[in-house]
Design goal:
single chain, 198 residues, mainly beta, four-stranded antiparallel β-sheet, 3 helices, globular
């Protein structure tokens, strides 16, 4: 949905209908029943037109399908989409006019769900279709393993800011994993307190 600052509903579209109209309904229609088959967890609007995106486009992250997509509301078309190799990702970010980042939770499905070694922050280049993992060593070195949620933002000097949501931890570290600082949200007895998209 798009809502004006005054609270007026400007438009509303069903994500299931968007997928269906673009020939991608099969991604969720053939799966076992779930009350939350898509789990849209982030929307990033494109603010400036460039060679690989147009102002007004939306980048969306659908956790339960391990799906990222670029949607153009003005035409109703999905411009780009990819399912994996990330697993149950969060926090898609537009880095520049051709690159996006995403927080790869690297979840192994099961009961309970677990993380495969550590989370990661991936960079995808829409021009080259190249996927890189510049912070993998840093995430492993600091044992970052949130099964749900999670945020990661590359910083201008090469560092990365991370929220390990499930364990109430914020970190800033360099690409090798050296901590610049760390904050842990906990009560006086040491019980970790959940963070919420800081």
């Amino acid at each position: 949905a798009k809502i004006s600052p005054a609270g007026k509903l400007l438009f509303r579209q069903s994500l299931a209908d968007i997928l269906e109209r673009n020939g991608l309904g099969y991604l969720f229609e053939g799966r076992p029943y779930s009350p939350d088959p898509l789990h849209l967890n982030d929307i990033e609007p494109v603010l400036h037109t460039g060679p690989y995106m147009t102002k007004g486009d939306l980048f969306l992250s659908l956790r339960h399908l391990s799906l990222l997509m670029q949607y153009r509301p003005s035409t109703g078309k999905i411009i780009w989409w990819q399912q994996g190799p990330w697993r149950m990702q969060h926090d898609i970010n537009i880095l520049d006019d051709r690159r996006i980042s995403l927080f790869d939770n690297r979840v192994i499905a099961g009961d309970p769900e677990t993380v495969d070694q550590a989370n990661d922050l991936l960079i995808y280049d829409l021009a080259t279709k190249n996927l890189t993992s510049p912070y993998a060593a840093a995430f492993k070195a600091n044992n970052i393993k949130t099964v749900t949620q999670g945020r990661g933002t590359p910083l201008g000097n090469g560092d990365v800011f991370v929220e390990e949501t499930d364990f109430g931890r914020l970190l800033r570290m360099d690409p090798q994993g050296k901590l610049r600082w760390e904050y842990i949200s906990a009560n006086p007895s040491g019980k970790r307190l959940l963070l919420a998209w800081s």
